[in-house]
Amino acid sequence: xxxxxxxxxxxxxxxxxxxxxxxxxxxxxxxxxxxxxxxxxxxxxxxxxxxxxxxxxxxxxxxxxxxxxxxxxxxxxxxxxxxxxxxxxxxxxxxxxxxxxxxxxxxxxxxxxxxxxxxxxxxxxxxxxxxxxxxxxxxxxxxxxxxxxxxxxxxxxxxxxxxxxxxxxxxxxxxxxxxxxxxxxxxxxxxxxxxxxxxxxxxxxxxxxxxxxxxxxxxxxxxxxxxxxxxxxxxxxxxxxxxxxxxxxxxxxxxxxxxxxxxxxxxxxxxxxxxxxxxxxxxxxxxxxxxxxxxxxxxxxxxxxxxxxxxxxxxxxxxxxxxxxxxxxxxxxxxxxxxxxxxxxxxxxxxxxxxxxxxxxxxxxxxxxxxxxxxxxxxxxxxxxxxxxxxxxxxxxxx
Length: 399
Description:
Number of domains: 3
Low-confidence stretches: none
CATH architecture of the largest domain: 3-Layer(aba) Sandwich
Strand content: 25-35%
Number of helices: 13
Helix content: 25-40%
Largest sheet: 6 strands, antiparallel
GO molecular function: ATP binding; magnesium ion binding; malate-CoA ligase activity; succinate-CoA ligase (ADP-forming) activity
Catalytic activity: (S)-malate + ATP + CoA = (S)-malyl-CoA + ADP + phosphate; succinate + ATP + CoA = succinyl-CoA + ADP + phosphate; GTP + succinate + CoA = succinyl-CoA + GDP + phosphate
Keywords: ATP-binding, Ligase, Magnesium, Metal-binding, Nucleotide-binding, Tricarboxylic acid cycle
Distance between the termini: 36 Å
Shape: elongated
Number of strands: 19
EC number: 6.2.1.5
Organism: Pseudochelatococcus contaminans
Mean pLDDT: 91
CATH class of the largest domain: Alpha Beta
Radius of gyration: 25 Å
């Protein structure tokens, strides 16, 4: 689960991480009060969407005077003007894709006198099963570009969970960023506080870009991006309360209600599969035969008829879907349950696109019989290769 920048900063502040003062607003009418509360003389007006690159982003329908999704205001009047220009419009960045995201919230923040900009993040390193820190002097830049062009400017290290943060970790960060004296001490404290937040809130990714040194020599998190481990949210109702469903795909929200692993993709063939490995293989083979999957959907090993019905409805609700492939290998999952779920869903929502079903495993003959006797226009498949070719050909034939 992702949260907005202003929410991430409020959370980090609870753990002692230095952040600038700011006020979240939801309408331009609130801008003047926010500017007055902060006092100025400089304010930063920031679009709040779940995507990076907001400053370099462009609005979907350009207007005269557009300056991206992050703007520097030098008066309370400009704070109001910029807020009015940004709210309700669709911002397109490298991370949103061409569809962009609508800006429904703005963060008005104190302006900062910046002396230096750095990059710092913490994430789960699945190779070492530890929390890893990534540090670079190239703040404000896309870290993937830095890694590709100047990898020597990136320092990484991991924290042993048995010992937690040690003083030498802070010294590593200070050395990597060229900090000394009091700034080096601040770096050590920052690593301590970030690690505490990471572990305490079950964070999966924490990015500060940029981490700045102000002209009066303070380290400040000027931006913050935080993602949480969704499997641990039951432990953090305060974090769940921060969820902004307007930033999420409606189909993914619906899938979460049924405990379905669903991710919307950009293709035109809907997939319903059981097991993450089989799902990935299904996506790959669809691409191999020249089409693109519309989703990743894993119904799990013990799905019920109701769960399968819900999954099918979610797939068919996507207007980009031009064909559906059901690929089930029944171990714990029974093929007859899948068949009954598919039939129930088709009868309820109808079927306007080609449907190919490949069943194998537990109760496979019963599953095939249920489908064949249903009277539905379903194309059976013998194996994954056969299924992929049939659904791709069906979609291409209907195009």
